[in-house]
Amino acid sequence: MSVLKKPLVSEKMAVLNERPSSKYNQYAFKVDMDASKPQIKREVEAMYGVTVKGIRTLIVQGKSRNRYSRTGYITGKSPNYKKAIVSLVEGDLIDFYKNI
Q1: Which of 2, 5, 13, 88 could form a disulfide with 30 if both were Cys (CB 3.0 to 4.6 A apart)?
Q2: What does pTM read for this prediction?
Q3: Do 60 and 81 contact (CB within 8 A), yes or no?
Q4: Phi and psi dihedrals of 74, rounded to 5?
Q5: Would you say 93 and 36 are in contact if contact means Cβ atoms under 8 Å apart?
């Protein structure tokens, strides 16, 4: 089973990818809730052929959803997930769009 679930591509992460400074050479991934930093580092290096400088992880709380229907007021919640922000060494980059 893979530790990495999918890359997170958003405007905020695009800004971190495109800055010329090496401290902003960062990419975000949605990862398994039980994944540790060494596991994430091994998988990113093996899958993309880059060298990882550092990893920050956080658990994103799911949003609450509310709607009113014919049967009454329905509340729910989207699931929590774990996000890993991976910093690469200067000169390395990951191109998510090369196989499209």
Answers
A1: 5
A2: 0.83
A3: yes
A4: -110, 130
A5: no
